[in-house]
Design brief:
mainly beta; 22 strands; globular; 6 helices; 6-stranded antiparallel β-sheet; 2 domains; Jelly Rolls
Length: 321
């Protein structure tokens, strides 16, 4: 049962979300807003459902359990559970200022992985900004004080963003997506978030949303971020597609493909592949058939699946471990 799996994403209607994932990315739901679409998910808080072929109706998590870790590949077998969570995020309003713990702290305190992630800016309104670390090094005492007196943003680095920008958010980095930004997020398979500032908003229950100050103080890197906000490498231009390495670390590797013809791809024994379509109309051809690829589609290609071809005109992200 090794074939390209078309996935249905679990959806989240957080208060800061918009409607673009419904109107532009064909996410069907009765929700008024869709803040997040979990394009690749094997997590207790959301699981991808397989829509095609012999495994239709199964969760991706059940499929992996049935087929064994071979479908994750030799790199994926290093992890005690499914390694990645991939999302599309539509921020109509500002997200809270937050931080994620590293593996050591998260496994000890929360019972799951920490969260290192990357953001690819799919779209952004003019003037859109996000929080990315600090403007200067501060102490833990100052961090606590500024959270308490609502002056934290005064020492946060607020970065203008544009489509195509890439942000590597290492665990421990203070961050927040600003209003008017749509991103693709590739991250460790974790949903542990420590919120430290939330603009005075209240949740659905009418109460201020919980802050996690002491945990955040323990895990936050209080020095400025020194990473660039661009892709890891310049694009490679081929006759029928352009390919760019966006990010690479021990946890994941992400490529950006701009297709204007066809490209030959291969899923080897080393890792599964995730395809998330951001634009266009394409076809995925393999020995047993053809799958349509449209904006908002997500596919899981099992490790050791072998050769396949993508044809058409479009834009997609390819992620692996």
């Amino acid at each position: 049962m090794l074939y390209p799996l078309r996935l249905q994403a679990p959806l989240k209607d957080y208060l800061w979300g918009g409607t673009r994932l419904k109107t532009e990315y064909k996410k069907e739901t009765d929700m008024d807003k869709v803040a997040e679409s979990w394009e690749l998910a094997c997590h207790k808080d959301g699981k991808s459902i397989i829509l095609n072929g012999e495994a239709a109706g199964m969760t991706l998590e059940s499929y992996v359990a049935q087929q064994g870790k071979r479908v994750l590949g030799t790199h994926g077998e290093r992890f005690s559970y499914f390694p990645l969570l991939i999302k599309l995020i539509d921020a109509r309003d500002n997200l809270s200022v937050q931080v994620h713990p590293d593996n050591d702290y998260a496994l000890r305190v929360e019972g799951e992985y920490g969260k290192t992630e990357m953001w690819y800016i799919v779209d952004a309104v003019p003037g859109a900004r996000l929080v990315y670390g600090f403007t200067e090094e501060i102490s833990q005492d100052e961090f606590r004080r500024r959270i308490a007196d609502n002056t934290l943003l005064e020492v946060c680095r607020q970065v203008p963003v544009h489509p195509g920008d890439v942000f590597f958010i290492e665990a421990g980095t203070l961050h927040a997506i600003g209003s008017g930004i749509l991103i693709a997020e590739i991250q460790q398979n974790s949903n542990t978030t420590y919120r430290v500032y939330d603009y005075g908003r209240v949740g659905k229950d009418g109460k201020p949303r919980e802050l996690h100050v002491e945990k955040a103080v323990q895990v936050t890197n209080l020095k400025p971020v020194t990473r660039d906000t661009k892709a890891l490498a310049s694009p490679d231009f081929f006759a029928e597609y352009d390919m760019q390495l966006l990010a690479q670390c021990e946890l994941f590797t992400v490529y950006d493909f701009q297709l204007h013809g066809r490209c030959h791809l291969q899923a080897t024994t080393s890792s599964f592949q995730s395809l998330v379509v951001l634009e266009g109309m394409m076809e995925l051809e393999y020995s047993r058939g053809i799958e349509r690829l449209e904006k908002g589609d997500s596919f899981f290609i099992p490790a050791d699946f072998g050769d396949y071809m993508i044809k058409g005109n479009g834009h997609f992200l390819l992620s692996m471990v």
